[in-house]
Amino acid sequence: MPQVVLNGPLGDTATTAYSYRLNTGFAPRGKYLKDVAALPRFTLIAGAADEAFDAAQYEPTLSAVTDKGRYVIVDGIGHLDIVNAPETREAIESLINDL
After folding, report:
1. Which candidate, 80, 82, 86, places its Cα nearest to that of 2?
2. How many CB atoms lie within 10 A of CB 1?
3. DSSP class per residue in 76-99
4. What is the per-residue burial (b if ≥16 Cβ within 10 Å, else e) of 3-26?
5. CA 15 to chain centroid
């Protein structure tokens, strides 16, 4: 964990160690494509500069098993920055307006 985070205003809330249970919670189930195929309509929003996942692979991987997805990949945005990106709000507002 970067020291600047630990010394920041929320540093005392940072997760500095992962238990086995927490770590396995991040991994999809072995038959995740079966899970994806069962999803209702969904919108996936990710940053193109994601440091944890290859955002360019979401659509080709998931659309192979379902046509219910809408994919919004935001240029220049990283894994955690997507939460506060204006494009995220725009995509959510668009989704709500389309209901």
Report:
1. 80
2. 10
3. T--TTGGGG-HHHHHHHHHHHHT-
4. eeeeeeeeeeeeeeeeeeeeeeee
5. 18
Q: From start to end of the chain, where are the E strands? A: 42-47, 69-74
Distances (CA, A) of 87 to 22, 26, 76, 90: 29, 25, 11, 5
55 forms bridges with which residues in the sheet? none
Output the CA torsion 25→31→36→40 (10° steps). Answer: -90
Output the tens digit of pLDDT for each of the chain's 99 residues. 889 989 999 999 998 888 999 888 888 888 999 999 999 999 999 999 999 899 999 999 999 999 999 999 999 999 999 999 999 999 999 989 988
Amino acid letter, 90: E
**Side-chain-facing half-sphere of 28: CA atoms under 13 Å:** 8
